[in-house]
Amino acid sequence: MTGTGPAPIRVLVVDDQDIVRDGLVTILDLSPELAVVGEAATGERAVELAGETRPDVVLMDLRMPGIGGVEATRRLRSEQPGVAVLVLTTFDDGDSLRAALAAGARGFLTKDAGRVQLVDAIRSVARGGAVFSDSAAGQLVRAFVGGGGADSTTGTDSGPPVRREAHAGTGPVDAAALRTPFPELTPREREVLAAIASGASNAEIAASFFISIATVKSHVNALFAKLGASSRAEAIGLVRDRLSGY
Length: 246
Prior knowledge:
Elements: E1 9-14, H1 18-29, E2 34-40, H2 43-53, E3 57-60, H3 68-79, E4 84-89, H4 94-103, E5 107-110, H5 115-126, E6 131-132, H6 134-144, H7 187-197, H8 202-209, H9 213-227, H10 232-244
Parallel strand pairs: 1-2, 1-3, 3-4, 4-5, 5-6
Helix pairs in contact: 2-3, 3-4, 4-6, 6-9, 7-9, 7-10, 8-9
């Protein structure tokens, strides 16, 4: 008797280097929950092939001939809003990360990521999450919050020690209420923003969602970057302002 499990996550692999692309396909083929539906060596071909294969996740290189990964991501997200783009790159400088994030990428990994980390990242972005390597998260923190951390708890991460910032929430906020005023955020990012606006700390958010504090930090960094917020207080202010308009 055979059972039917969930459909595999459909992945399009985009990289201009044949050896890298072949290696990625080989790695992903080892996971039964993933299905590689196509390969592309240019951004133009990635957009074209995505229209033909309808992937769930596009594994995207940044530096390629032609339009490159950032513009390809922008076109993909415009034509297929439901597709998740996960950047896999050697170049995790702040400018590249900001550009790709603004174009609609949901995550960034460097090419030294291991197989388990890569598969976990694909699974996470396919479900609406955001994933950042330690180095990418550090770049985002430095780029968007001027070197300060986005965490509200004490401790250290890949960047400098973060400071505790005094802030008060708006009172209980339902993530569903943030869907219209914050369309640029993923569902999980809206849940995290709602928790922040309600006054929850990163540790409390992690416990509530049954995820690690590191994952919470990734979501916080991502939503701060998308909103241009430099602190929890600014994010809470944005929630107040946008909710007041609806």
